[in-house]
Design a protein that fits this description.
By secondary structure, the chain is mostly helical. The protein contains 6 helices and no strands.
């Protein structure tokens, strides 16, 4: 646990080399959320392993599924998210195996530790992915409802109604483009 931050940095950095940021995150934000998510996942894995707690008996800690919240509005985000978690689990195993190999010098003890750690990591990763899938469903439904609300607010703005800008649920400090088309009852008049 003393090496948790450096371990998480190695894992998240290596994952980011193999998976570009999702469209909803810039490079800096992606590395930041990836590092935080990795850190809490690795911490949970090591804690449950150290205390003999079954890896699938606890909910993932706060922040472990943070990536879901950032990319749930992207329809192609789920495969990206699953790939990030798969790469994270593989990279975590590489780091743990290296650590054990460098610090455990008895072959029999090393073999036992590798088997226990491997089984625990696989169980933890399976459990997190199941939780991730459930959360994905919740977040994507929320994003869809928010999108429908946003469309209604935009229609109200176009109609000249007063609306609360917070209802747009859009970061107004980012650049965006809005295109509005007005439908006319009489197309010939509209074209004239």
């Amino acid at each position: 646990m003393a090496d948790l931050d450096s371990l998480s940095t190695k894992i998240s950095t290596n994952v980011s080399k193999h998976q570009l940021p999702p469209a909803s995150l810039n490079d800096t934000a992606y590395l930041d959320v990836l590092h935080r998510s990795t850190s809490v996942n690795v911490g949970a894995f090591l804690s449950t392993l150290a205390y003999g707690v079954p890896a699938d008996s606890v909910d993932p800690p706060e922040g472990a599924l943070e990536l879901v919240d950032h990319i749930a509005c992207n329809p192609e985000g789920l495969p990206t998210l699953l790939r990030i978690y798969r790469l994270g689990a593989a990279e975590s195993w590489q780091q743990f195996a290296t650590y054990l190999g460098e610090n455990v010098h008895d072959a029999a003890t090393l073999a036992k530790l590798v088997l226990v750690a491997s089984e625990h990591l696989n169980t933890y990763a399976d459990h997190v992915v199941q939780c991730l899938s459930e959360r994905w469903g919740e977040r994507s439904r929320e994003a869809a409802r928010s999108g429908r609300r946003r469309e209604a607010v935009l229609r109200a703005l176009l109609a000249g109604e007063n609306v609360d800008a917070d209802e747009l649920a859009h970061p107004l400090d980012r650049f965006h483009v809005a295109i509005a088309l007005r439908r006319c009852a009489n197309t010939a008049t509209a074209l004239a």
